[in-house]
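Lecture notes, structural biology module. Today: joint structure prediction for complexes of two components.
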Amino acid sequence: MATIQNSRISKLKALLIDDMSGMRANLRAQLQQLGVHDVVQAASATDALKTMVRQPFDLVLCDYNLGGDTNGQQLLEHARTRKLLLPVTIWFMVTAESSYNYVATASDFAPDDYLIKPFTAANLESRLMRHFERQDALEPALKRMAAGDMEGAVAQFSKLADAGSKFTMDALRQKARCLSALGRHEEAKAVYAQALSIRQGLPWAELGFARALRDAGDIEKARSAAASIVMANPSLVGAYELLAEIHQARGEERQTLEALRKAESIVPSAARTRALGAAAMRAGDVELAKTSYAKVVAATRNSVTKSPYDSAALAQIYVDTGEAQQALEVLKLVQREFGDETGFQAIAAAVQARAYVETGDDDAAGEALERALKLVENADPAASLAVSKACFALGRGEEGERIVINAVRANHEDAHMVAAAKRVLKEAGREELTSRLVDEQVQEMLGMTERALALAKKARLPEAQAMIAEAVAGLPNNVGVLVAAAQINLLFLSQQGLDAEVATRVREYLATLDRLAQGTERVVKMGKFFRELLLKARAEAAA
Amino acid sequence: MRDALVATVVHDLKNGLTALTSCAGDIAERSIGSALESDTARLHAATAALSQRLVAFLTLYRSGNAGLAAQLRDNTPEDFLHELAAGLVLPPETVSVKTAACAEAPPFWFFDDYLTRLALEAAVNNALRFAKSEVVLGCALRDGYLVFAVADDGPGLGAQAQASTGLGTALCQTIAKAHTNGERAGKVVLRNRAGGGAQFELWLP
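The predicted structure, tokenised, for the full assembly:
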């Protein structure tokens, strides 16, 4: 072989990642047989990352088992997340036959192909040719996708799938993704169902279908679909992650933790451990939160993915559990390096204030709190809560209350944030405040809704529309507010004729209602009324 | 403990053999046109065949009682056969291996291309021992199954059974069974050809 070299292959700039020098030499020789001479080698995941930061590659041949803490799958996820790969970079995962099953089912964050050892240069060449053929067939559609023209991409993928070519399944998969991105969940479901009618039990199609169910608001069906996927594919990480999202949305903290723990154990990554830590905090599982964040901090210590917020979270947990000294040490390690991260510095100062209270250094505590209060003005809600906790700890309850109330007012739609704020107030013995501060906002918006309905009754529609729009903006997921908004705007359409902008607004309200209160008689009736209005308008336009 | 030891030793052997095969391939490549061309090609083919048999053994050994898990992906059967044929390492004096036109094959089918390659390589190696002039690979859709066929023009089935260690057959059966689609599972069919010779068939649902 190798007498006729393919020019497309020989132009590739390749990166070889393997911890065994013999295997690297072997792969290098195979690439040379294919005419690939621009080859860089890396002996570890860390080496590989450093190399990828410096220069982009067309082809990555990565062994799954890299000897150290990081495996090929983790490295791939990491490189994709950090955008170290070009859109056209080809990633081939090299695996031993013994681990192939495990590797191949592990993730829907899949490489472009798997090469199972032993393989020859001829095998590698045909895999590359197969990849190019697929890339060429999908390119027109992928280009539209990259340009943000999802509608155009859907049309292109449909054409490919309808032609019954060998790329039918790729086309269906991508088409469904585009439809999901467009928010056309019912159509996405239909495409996944089409793929499943071609082959039952396809993991990616089952998972896509379950995601589309969730996105369309059919949470219960999505939950049972995701549960059966993990039964049939116990190492499909994406299914556990979907399950975790669903449980989280339903407020089922324990189940959320279970699913995240499972995902993290299958393909460990800092991002997954971090998600587990955050969920554990929300569920009040302090020990799990502590071990998770400690693991993230340790794993990313010398990594480019190091985030000071992991250290901040860990330090907060330490101070919460009375380990003030540890909290101070964790912060000391990152505080200088992230001097210009205001949010982090605010949390760090607040945690230090509380830690110094514990160690009896009142002067240092006061000084740290002053710093925290100065920084919190420009910081995010998480920092606000940390600073308010410090206020309570140092006996400055009024300031603490003020900070919590402002943070909640600015972020009242963020359920996690509101729940965290409630916890802070509860710990400070000010539980009575929680209902007040959340309800205030809701009451204001509901009052606005009442006034908007009253205005509509008096035929002052434009004012009613403006007011209800404001109420929806304040409470975007409140069924009562949305029903009123749909009613007022439908009234406008039936009286003033079809207005594209108003019709779009109604469609959005009804879609959200469909998600929140699917099947409710009132919602169904409004949907029917809306469709009739549209049909009537179309008939009139045609006449 | 003993099982783990066997697995480790075979794994080591396999890695060594892989390196040896790759090295032999390199030497064979560089010997083209020299006096050693035929000898080095034979060396390469012999190491490749050994390597392939060891992988077959390891695959069967690991499958244990639970059987193998097939990773089903959509593959194009005709492309797959061409790749398989291109990847074969055959000794110089052997008969030719051809790929027939696959007019009746579907544009794509779901199967584990790695396992299917192992099964068909074993079938090809077996056919090569009996073929007089050629071995022909083909594929077609039959009764809702994708059927890969390896045909030889040797003496037919009766003569072959006695000469086999059974490793190849056991491997193919296990791989066929690993392919399921709903209630249906894959199967292996061996038959005599009308015009003489034997045909191995791997039926994948």
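Point to remember: The longest strand of chain B covers residues 134-142.
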